[in-house]
Amino acid sequence: MRTVWLFIERYEVRLFTMDERSRQRQFEDQFLRQLRTRAQALLRRAIPADQFTLETLPDGVDSVRATLTRLERFDRGLLEKLPGTQAIQLRFKRRVFGPLRKTVVRLRAQVLAPIEELVAEEAPGPIGREQVQLALDRYTLLPEGKRPTAAVFASATGFTPEARALVHAGGQPTVILMGGREDGGWDVEMPQALRRTPWAQLFDLESQDERLKRLLYHLDKNAGQLEARGVSVAELAEQLGLPREQVEGLVRQACRNDSQLMTVVHEGTVHVCRSPLAEEGHTMSLWSRIRKLLRLKPTPAERVRILTAQRVRLEQQRHELDGRVNALETEEREAVERGAAAKTDVERKQLAGKLVRARRELRRVRAQANVFTQQIDIIGTHIHHQTLAEQGKRVELPKAEDLTREAAEAEQIMAELSANADLAANIEVGAESPLMAEEEAAIFAEFKEAAGQQAPEQASTAPEAEKTEPASAAPDETPVPPEAEKDKTARPELG
Predict the structure, then answer these.
(1) What are the φ/ψ torsions at residue 332 (nearest 5 degrees)?
(2) How many C-beta atoms lie closer than 10 Å to residue 406's C-beta?
(3) Distance CA 62, CA 137 (A)
(4) Which of 109, 171, 234, 318 sits most deeply, having the most CB atoms within 10 A of its CB?
(5) For residue 216, how many other CB atoms are within 10 A of its CB?
(6) Helical H runs in 93-172?
(7) Phi/psi at 107 (nearest 5 deg)?
(8) What digits encode the pLDDT tens for the residues 100-147?
């Protein structure tokens, strides 16, 4: 049994490794394709270049082959299955005079993969400083006119902090590291001097729609918090790995696309939350502003959104009090433990005074949190009831008279349909003609006549078979006389 389980575990590890290899090869193809597409889109627009040429280089396959040689794995099929075998160079040119062009940037792009972990069938980790430095050292062997001015390395598993520190070390070529995120985004590490130039847009491989999808993914992931106290923009920026200004723009776009999403400002921080009742179209917001200017009664959707914003602010205040409660409870436990371990009365008296103050403050904070909890429960119940009432009004349901009338009409139609079906089955006309019926009757008579002729022939052949069977068996079954049996068993006489 243990052998079977070991085999299953090795088989699962092998499947996982094969899937990881395929995933990283797909990541490599996607990265190089997106980089070429991005370079083509920025020509003559954002970057100071009007043409680029693509060159395929052997840097990637040479690096992977050297690693396999060091690991003593001489398998060509394995080399073809591993990622990191592709490397390209983008040579950006700019027109100088007439047909003459000048090369402004030589950018090398390559995906660095954890080859040792993939070959050893282990879970791959981020790329370290040594592997990045080894890829950079290859460029020092090139002639000065062919050395790249910038090098971008990508990794599906990201880079270690030591590897990212190489980006800001200075020197040539300029290093850009792009790590893949679990949510589909990119962690881009580049020098600050490059970030201020138009060339930084070349490494912005993610479109606005893709960022919006990632934002919605994280909002769905934090659905519980989104329904309660909301998610702050700072938290979303940290989860997305984007600047706060970009996240605020994405949040506004998401609120325009989804009428249930809304923002609440609490103590200068923008929080995203979800209202249980959606607004009915964009014209509703304009009409809401007019109603607000005229000081008319707000609509049910507006009342629900106002109550939701109020509940989110209360949730934020209660969350802050919960943090204070946790800190005071920790202080209370530590005071009790230290008091139990105290050896002198002076120390016990000091700890007792601190414990009294902590418990007094803890009761007050708990009372405040209880007030917020009751207020949140009341507002939540009010929101729930208004949502149910408004949703019931928005859907027009048929009345009882309409249901009864339509049911009677349907029953009458079904009865008429059943009667017509029975009538059609009874009066169905066949396609058989009288001449065909007579021909079939003649064929049936011919069948019966042939069957009658076969019956006497079978009856006459049966006795003859019974007579011939004993005759044929007679030579083989001749009876032996008793005297012969005695002669065969008798002993010879003595003379």
Answers:
(1) -65, -45
(2) 11
(3) 14
(4) 109
(5) 15
(6) 115-119, 129-140, 161-165
(7) -110, 125
(8) 888 899 999 999 999 999 998 888 999 999 999 999 999 988 888 889
Pairing label, strands 87-97, 261-266: unpaired
Neighbouring C-beta atoms of residue 461, cutoff 10 Å: 9
Tokens of 407: 């049911």
Cα(229)–Cα(64) distance, integer angstroms: 50
Cβ count near 57 (within 10 Å): 15
- How far apart (Å, rounded) are the C-alpha atoms in residues 187 and 206? 11
pLDDT reported for residue 88: 94
**Minimal CA–CA distance to 24: which of 132, 123, 113?**
113
DSSP 313-343: HHHHHHHHHHHHHHHHHHHHHHHHHHHHH--
CB 309 within 8 A of CB 265: no
Q: Are 373 and 318 in contact (CB under 8 A)?
A: yes
Which pTM does this prediction carry?
0.62
- CA–CA separation, 188 and 151 (whole Å): 13
Q: How is residue 492 annotated by DSSP?
A: P
Strand 261-266 and strand 269-274: the pairing is antiparallel
Find, among 278, 275, 277, 299, the residue nearest to 287 by Cα: 299
Task: Read off the DSSP letter of residue 344.
Answer: S
Residues 6+ apart with CB under 8 A from 206: 185, 186
